[in-house]
## 1
Amino acid sequence: MSAAASPARDWWRELAPVVAAFPVAGRLAAAAPYGNGHINETYVLGCDVAGAPRRYVLQKINHRIFKNVPALMDNIRRVCDHLGAKSSRAMRLVSTQRDEICHQDAAGNWWRLYDFIEAAHTVDQVMGEAQAREAALAFGRFQAQLADIPGARLHETIPDFHHTRQRFENLRAARAADVRGRAAEVRDELAFAFAREADTDVLLGLLARGEVRERITHNDTKINNVMLDDATGRGVAVIDLDTVMPGLALYDFGEMVRTAASSTAEDDPDSSRMHVRLPFFRALVAGYLEGAGDALNAVERAHLGFAGKMMTYENGIRFLTDYLQGDTYYRIKHPHHNLERCRAQFALVRSIEQNLDAMARLVAEIHGAP
Ligand code: ADP
Ligand code: GN1
Ligand code: MG
């Protein structure tokens, strides 16, 4: 996992006061930015426990995006407790010195600490079909394991997170406001998005008619949100639990198609390199169906390919909206980053559209005709 390069900053000094709020073992020896997430700030802490190394993951929660952090952390605590009882390598929260699940600093920022899951890694791009299958198996199992979480319905940490119609209306509003004067530059992308407006209601319609049901889902099943064992490559833990909340299995599967059946990075500046890889799609279906057990019904199975298109489309319109609004949501590395992300997503949408029949045949082959 590459760390965001910031050689000039003394992370140890900056983070030490926050770290002091947590009962970390031994002596803090090192601290540095970590990972490639777009939302939170993630750091790895290295501690020296009488000569033995011990690592933690420290995160500053993006409270501009997650507006109710106590509710979010209540979800995560419940999910960790539930999964921890079923697996020895699940995400484990470390409570603060005051025995709270997160720490708010003097500036109002929220911080949480996890044990570092050792001997495992994440990838930003899938390396092969076996890896895609393992990731899908882990996400499918994750969903199956959460099916019996006790207590009240989990909080919606971001309301309407996968309400694609609402995402579309946000794009329409951003186009109308055009606060950065960018709408003319993205005329083609807007036309592409608007030509598919009717699709935004399909999954919501299935839910409204009771053809698919709500489950506890992860909602951000991109490939770098699952940790794979260094030695065996098996999925060991699903991470990035901020969006675990009620949702559709199709959201989770679709997001996997977007990130693990795609031929290139989500932000590849050359969108002609982007297409769906059918053998990887096949591997995802096999892994997910195995992991989720018999949880998926025939309607869900019949929409696995379409879900990949929809989650890719949804991400594309979210990137486009953020570009129009002046890049206020996602972390960007250069001024056209969100536009390049959008173009790559739309290229993938087009490719999935051309392959929907082939994808349906693969699903039927694996599971029997829906
Ligand atoms: P974001 O919400 O910004 O995507 P994540 O929670 O996904 O943040 O964390 C970013 C990266 O940090 C992950 O992709 C993973 O590589 C690493 N990471 C997160 N949690 C752990 C953990 N408990 N153990 C090891 N690595 C982790
Ligand atoms: C964000 O946090 P991260 O990088 O795993 C986003 C997802 C998008 C993804 C696109 C809370 O995920 O919804 O699909 O970027 N998370 C949030 O790469 O908005
Ligand atoms: Mg992440």
## 2
Amino acid sequence: MDLSIRNLQVSVEGKQILRGLNLEIKQGEVHALMGPNGSGKSTLAYALMGHPKYHIEGGDILLDGTSLLDLAADARARLGLFLAFQYPTTIPGVTLADFLRRSISAVRHAQQEAPSEPQRNGQAKSHLMPMREFRRELLQKMKDLGVDQTFARRYVNDGFSGGEKKRVEILHMAMAEPKFAVLDETDSGLDIDALRIVAEGVSSLTGPNLGVLLITHYQRLLNYIKPDHVHILLDGQLVESGGPELAETLEAKGYDWVREKYAEPVA
Ligand code: ADP
Ligand code: MG
């Protein structure tokens, strides 16, 4: 299984952001994507997930050879793609347990069944995971990831602190069992303890069945989650790729040397 990004060009609000990006992620690999603010990291995450505001101007995104471009976000999720947002949204009126049960049931069911399941009244049949089975799994994963069990009865992200929202995202990821996960600045806004817990949570989910694209501005998350490959995005293009040592270079020297190396000549 691989997630293959080929010559991807993406615009937002009429402005071209990604300018021909190539990246190949295999299941089992952890890739870190780093780069200065505004370089297009979140744009890539949204484009991968199929956010309608991010227009694909060229190139392709393939999951095991099949293009995802014509698929909406929920269809991509059912194929095993998961995106943890930089800014998780609040869903008032929907409890976390209910949200997770619905979302996980839809994703898992799609992965088990043939793709063209008969539909009634134009609507996909609901296949909710049995409550007892779901609760058992939810409570176990909450425990593993250090998420307060009372959160299950609260509305999604309503009044959660930054660190709590990130933990809930990792919980969602653990429950969804994706094949590929894109984590956008999962470390931002976390204090050092919360960072460690979230990072250990992500680490515990990595393995041969998961490919990860870890988007981070700072190297510190990579102290806990060891990437196999590190890439630097600058002005919508991947300019450097290497191993974990590349992240250490960034930590020591910042991004200025990258900007200087790839500065466009002044006309
Ligand atoms: P990063 O995540 O690397 O900080 P982004 O992908 O968020 O970078 O942003 C890249 C560029 O795209 C920035 O110039 C930003 O202003 C622009 N951009 C991103 N999203 C939007 C949007 N929804 N509307 C307008 N401009 C956007
Ligand atoms: Mg961003």
